[in-house]
Design a protein that fits this description.
single chain; about 375 residues; 6 strands; about 65% helix; elongated
Length: about 375
């Protein structure tokens, strides 16, 4: 690929799409809450044409849309296709809400929303993972949903024992403010039966909200610890692209790292001592068998530009090449053969280029013995 074309393509990366969408979510929340809390003091170009009631409604819905955008960007950070679809639906909505709010404070929201749409559309192919919720997140979702359904149904069936509960919406409102321990006090139980039921909603609601918050905040806390310890989180690995994946560790690893320079790379090795050593040096490394699928998925091999296989075990190299080729059909795979007779076998396994360090070294030594002047310049490139 031409260097200028590559430079342009790198601008429109998954990183840019995620960052832009996150900024839209934050701006939508900020402008919506500002509209609700303090009102609009400086009108925009459309303010004379937008009624105050519609503008206030846009503030409420804008804050809600911002919250939904934060959820969709969480899925984007994990390259999930559902996050791409949700964000593409929400971006035009945030732009429209910014226009309706008719404030100079909402103009950045409109502009960034419109700019984010082509950026996200350009990177459609980069968000190709199915939605995957952890067991804790599924449990939190079920617990929270079950509590809200239980509280709403129970409150509505006991509506005669509550003050000001006349509809399902009133029952849902009471359940939310009770389960979240906000408790505005405008709806109160009037009988012993209603009070006992309210206590059950408080207990179940507190537990389910705690589980939900833990499933959301847990990864964030983990990311903070990982950043403090100099390690990358799963999300940061997910956003790697156009990088190099090095499978295995051996005598060639350090020279490879030096040659890669500023190029982003990830090492996959099962040697725990090596993993600790590289993490102490702030080098991206994943602990796992280089021939297993999961460590290669964790290294985001699907979006790598090249794969280097150098485990110093040709049999393991062959398995690693087969796995890498299956997971990343378009990546360039370079392998180092320990034994000369295995060069063709590694090529048949799927490597694009197979080099034998022993063969190359022998040729250089022999050439140096026969033609010292011609070989010295070539050898100096490797020393």
């Amino acid at each position: 690929m031409d260097r200028s074309v590559r430079k342009v393509s790198q601008i429109y990366t998954a990183h840019a799409a995620v960052v832009a969408s996150t900024l839209v979510a934050v701006l939508s929340l900020a402008t919506g809450l500002t509209n609700i809390a303090v009102g609009v003091t400086i009108g925009g170009p459309l303010s004379p044409f937008v009624p105050d009631l519609i503008r206030a409604a846009a503030g409420f819905t804008g804050a809600l849309t911002g919250f939904l955008m934060l959820l969709s960007t969480w899925a984007l950070r994990h390259r999930q296709r559902v996050g791409w679809y949700a964000t593409m639906v929400l971006l035009p909505i945030t732009a429209a809400q910014g226009l309706v709010q008719a404030s100079v404070y909402s103009l950045p929201l409109v502009g960034l929303s419109l700019l984010s749409i082509p950026t996200l559309a350009f990177n459609y192919h980069r968000f190709d993972r199915p939605a995957a919720l952890s067991t804790t997140q599924i449990a939190a979702l079920l617990a929270l949903s079950g509590t809200l359904c239980y509280g709403t149904a129970g409150t509505y069936s006991l509506r005669e024992d509550f003050g000001q509960v006349n509809s399902v919406l009133d029952a849902f409102y009471y359940t939310v403010v009770t389960a979240s321990t906000v408790g505005y006090g405008d709806v109160t139980p009037l009988t012993q039966e209603a009070r006992v039921f309210s206590l059950s909603v408080v207990v179940l609601g507190t537990a389910s909200f705690a589980v939900a918050l833990g499933s959301v905040l847990g990864p964030a806390i983990e990311a903070r610890f990982a950043h403090a310890l100099g390690n990358m989180t799963d999300t940061e690995y997910d956003l790697l692209e156009d990088h190099v994946v090095i499978l295995g560790y051996g005598d060639l690893t350090e020279p490879i790292i030096e040659e890669l320079g500023d190029q982003e790379f990830v090492i996959v090795t099962g040697d725990t001592d090596v993993v600790t050593q590289y993490r102490n040096r702030d080098i991206r490394v994943i602990s796992g068998d280089p021939s297993d699928e999961q460590p290669l998925h964790d290294a985001n091999i699907e979006h790598a530009r090249a794969v280097i296989v150098a485990t110093e075990n040709d049999a393991q190299d062959a398995f690693a090449i087969l796995t890498a080729r299956e997971l990343s059909p378009d990546a360039r795979i370079i392998a180092a053969a320990t034994a000369r007779e295995n060069i063709q076998k590694l090529r048949r396994a799927g490597a694009d280029t197979v080099l034998s360090p022993a063969l190359i070294g022998g040729q250089l030594i022999g050439r140096s013995a026969l033609d010292s002047d011609g070989a010295e310049g070539l050898i100096s490139q490797f020393t």
